Amino acid sequence: MKLFIHKIGLVLLMAVLVMPVAAKVTYGVRFGGAYSSLIQKVDGEFNSGARFGFSVAGLADIPLYKRFSLRPELSFVNQGGSYYSAPQMEGMGYLNKCSYYSIVVPVNLAYTFLFTDVRFSIFAGPAFDYSLFGKMKNKETDTDILFGQTKDKDLKSFDLGVNLGLGVEYSNFFFSIAAFCGTLDRRAAKNEGETSVYQNNVTFSLGYFFR
C-alpha cells in the first residue's frame, strides 16, 4: 500500500513539474480559517470533536483541456480536533484535545466556467497530509505529539485524503470552500476496544490569482 501511494505521489509530482513547460500557468495565494475535526465511532455512532484553525497556501492553475485544469497547492495548516481513548474506563475515559501543524498538498482537477465577469470552479482530487508538530491535552497530561511514534498518545504522521470544493473568482480575487476527508487511521496505537480516528477539515479561504 505504501509503495502504491509513493508511486502515485511521484507521478503527480512529475506531472506538476512537467506541465508548466507546455502550458500557461497562473499562480495564486490564499488564506483562510479551517474548521477541523477528528472523527471516531463510539457505541455505534460517529463522534466529531472539532476546533478552529487556519490554512495558508500557494497554488497554481495549469490549463489541461478547454475548461479543465490541474490545480495543485502547497499549504500549511493548523488542524486537529478531539477524540476519546481508554474506552474501558467509565464515560469513555480520556477526551484528548489535539492541535497540530501539517503540510498538506492537494492535487485537484478543476472545472471552470464563466458567468458574465465571474469565474466559477468545481475541483476535486487526492490530498497528501504530513503532520509536523503539535500538542495533545487531556485531564491528566499536556504533552507534545510525537508523530510517527507508536505510543498511545501519539499520532501517525501521514494521511491520504480526498479533497473537494468550490471557488468563485472576480477580478483576480477569489473565495473558496474546500473539504478534506482523511482515509487513514491517525492513531499510532490502540488498546482493545478503541476505535479508529480520521481527520476531516472544512476550509473557507480568500485568495488572489496573479493573472
From TrEMBL:
It comes from the Bacteria. InterPro entries: Beta-barrel_OMP_2. Pfam families: OMP_b-brl_2. Residues 25-177 form the Outer membrane protein beta-barrel domain. This is Outer membrane protein beta-barrel domain-containing protein.
